Amino acid sequence: MSAPDAATMTHEEIGAWWATAVTRIAPGEIDLRGYPVQDVIGRLGFVEVVWLLLRGDLPEPAQARMLEAALVAGVDHGPQAPSIAAARMAATCGVGLNSAVATGVNLLGDVHGGAGQQCLALLERMGERRAAGEDTGDVARSVVAEYRERGAYVPGFGHRFHPRDPRRDPLLAMVSEGVRAGAVDPGPLESALALEEALAQRRTRPVPMNIDGATAVVYASLGFAPELARGLFVLSRSVGILAHAWEESRGRSRIKGPLPRQVLATYTGPATRPLPDGD
């Protein structure tokens, strides 16, 4: 059966092209998941609206506090972070602020910015094994053994800069509080702590959770999908990217590269040589 001709389509058929349950728009009307925007403004916080748009309902106060804590924790990690550095470099090249921010955000991929999603997916797989009757500690040890055999890092654990990520403890404390109050599922926290313990075995230094692991525990406890863990991290880190891009755009430097002009990248190619004589 061929597709209908656009000239013969009804308004309902055309409107169904971008059908959405998120927002209803009409002249003089904006509803967010059914709530008139004029009622939302001033009554709901930004984090509550994030939850509303992503989940379709309003969060409980404890859920909103946990989500806000995770978003706050990931806002920035200084200009040495590639996404921040790229945004600052872009800001010195005469592009608009939106382009500078987009430059930084576009660096948040599987390696830089994706560990939270990967960790949450791992916690979900561990949860499935726990539900099937396996012991949490046994599951964690087998996961660590599998990653070590592949020579891979367990996503969400260890940090190249911090011996112990200062964002870990307050986030996990909030999850623990939520578990005690019966507000969130205890499984993700138990699995993550078991992984941390398994990683520390036969090592002189522990491998504690980093920001990606801690926020993955928060998002998993709140029932967010792994893909949204990355989306929420992008939303959070965009604040820091914006702040750094704005600060750099206020300076007088132009076309700042990754190294100061006085420092040249190490050259590893052939020594200077003449072209061979041609016939």
Automatic annotation (TrEMBL):
Protein name per the record: citrate synthase (unknown stereospecificity)
PANTHER family in the record: CITRATE SYNTHASE, CITRATE SYNTHASE, PEROXISOMAL
GO annotation (BP), single: carbohydrate metabolic process
GO molecular function: citrate synthase activity; lyase activity
Organism: Streptomonospora mangrovi
EC assignment: 2.3.3.16
InterPro entries noted in UniProt: Citrate_synth-like_lrg_a-sub (IPR016142), Citrate_synth-like_sm_a-sub (IPR016143), Citrate_synthase (IPR002020), Citrate_synthase_sf (IPR036969)
One Pfam family here: Citrate_synt
EC primary class: transferase
Family: Belongs to the citrate synthase family.
Keyword Repeat found: no
Source organism, top-level taxon: Bacteria
Record pathway: Carbohydrate metabolism; tricarboxylic acid cycle
Gene Ontology cellular-component annotations: cytosol
Keywords: Lyase, Transferase
The keyword Cell membrane appears for this protein: no
